[in-house]
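for the writeup, i need someone to sanity check this before i put it in the appendix. the sequnce is what the collaborator sent (i think, or maybe the updated version? ugh). structure was predicted straight from it, no edits. if anything looks off just tell me and ill rerun, i have time this weekend
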Amino acid sequence: MEDTPASHGFHMPAEWERHSRCWIGWPERPDNWRDNAVPAQRLFANVAKAIAQFEPVTVCASAAQWENARKMLSDTTRFRIRVIEMSMNDSWFRDTGPTFVVRHGFPGGEREIAGIDWNFNSYGGIEEGCYKDWSQDLIAKKILEVEDIPRFPQEMILEGGSIHVDGEGTCLTTEECLLNKNRNPHLTREQIEGVLKAYLNVKKIIWLPRGLYGDDDTNGHIDNMCCFVKPGMVLLSWTDDETDPQYERSVEAYQVLSNATDATGRKLQIIKLHVPDPLYATDEEAAGLTQGDEAVPRPPGRRLAASYVNFYIANQAVIVPKFGDQKWDDEAARVLGDAFPDHRVCSTI
């Protein structure tokens, strides 16, 4: 489609609005997923099945992995999962997939859907990106063609995990990511805001300085740090440990959010969601990766970007990660249950 989504009356809806389907990529590359991605595939299958209890799911797998994905998701009738063949360089569809936008037709008419096809450069380009070849990560265009949904192309580099909206005109993001010179060095902050307003149809952007500590792959995506649970209310990754490098980032974000108002002028209610105790890559995990020149090195001992904020809101359910840290796993389930009283909290590990 020509012009911008906003000019056609489209806007990006909040994640808690009803979904017609969820799209998931299938992990494969051995330099990012240890042990030939077998542990990751098992977990992705569990997540797909958890989501499919509440909404249909499409899982996309490469030609080499299609049979394996079908086998691991064999009970597709029960779980409403379809598996289709699609080439990709990696499986992060939240980042490479389309940003869906909606508009409402005449009173009583059905909601219309379109998709934004952002540009992608592997989280930083040849020098700083996660992998050097991202030529097959044209996922947004492929999905929109499969669904026969209108497409708004946009040359600005942006990953879906770097933005979060309340559906009422407010967008959350981080300076660490969107203002990073490895994305759009030719654009100013004001120009980036202009694109977000024209394509997401938002009126106000709240910039947090940084994302989660250790989230170096994405340069601090908002989806690990902070999100809306309803208009006027946000969840913020938090720690009470002042010796943890995350503490400074959480306090910094809290101060920004405390002084911010949303697009309608509301002060924000902030709910602290404690991160798990620090997790580090083990020698065994690092040894299970194929380390080479194609992707960034992943040595043992590195801090992992573990956050409960990066959950998925399905129809009537919240799919929450678990990290084997019972204290904080249980606390996250409690906090999210209170934040989403009309949703069932489902944990995956």
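Residues 6-348 form a domain with the L-arginine/glycine Amidinotransferase; Chain A fold (CATH 3.75.10.10). The chain has a mean pLDDT of 95.
thx in advance!!
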